[in-house]
Amino acid sequence: MEQTMAVALHSVKLLRLSMNNLFGTLSDGVRTDHGEEHQIAANKFLLELQDLLGNLYLHMRELEQSVATLAPPPGPMPLYNSQHLTQESTLDRLALYEPLVQSYKWTDKVHEYSNLAVAVLSQNSLKRSYLSQSQKKRRVLTSSHNVPPQTVDTMIASFDNMIPNCYV
Questions:
Q1: CA atoms of 163 and 168, how far apart (whole Å)
Q2: Which family does the record assign (predicted)?
Q3: What's residue 17's pLDDT?
Q4: The dihedral of CA 50, 51, 55, 58: what is its sign?
Q5: I want to staple 34 with a disulfide (CB 3.0 to 4.6 A). Which of 41, 84, 102, 118 is the partner?
Q6: Could you say which DSSP state residue 164 is in?
Q7: Residue 10, Cβ neighbours under 10 Å: how many?
């Protein structure tokens, strides 16, 4: 376990180094040692970038392979000696303790809630509510009304009586 962790950490270190080289080369741009002619210098710069990207890709694959061999942690990580940070007299380290404890509590709650969610979701198969049709027959709602003409005439006459100046 310790050897695989050391290999994974070394892979991270190599990946960071190759990323640093790539960004350094990109920030420098085309240099004078690439050549005087613009086209030749640009081609050399592109070849150098291509080489750095290939190197970066190799380190990324190495990191992925080394991480794949690691076993996942069994549970949330304990704080160990970080509880002694509250006894520090320097303000820099004292300010670190509270966010560290809050993040630990938050991670612990996320772990607990995810375990509860897995338990609940594994019990519910969703076949009953979403995949099958309901057996109940529902009444079709009416979308229009059929009113006899006498009722409409009476309503219009009542409007005429309410407002004498307006004729319908």
A1: 10
A2: Belongs to the Mediator complex subunit 27 family.
A3: 93
A4: positive
A5: 41
A6: T
A7: 13
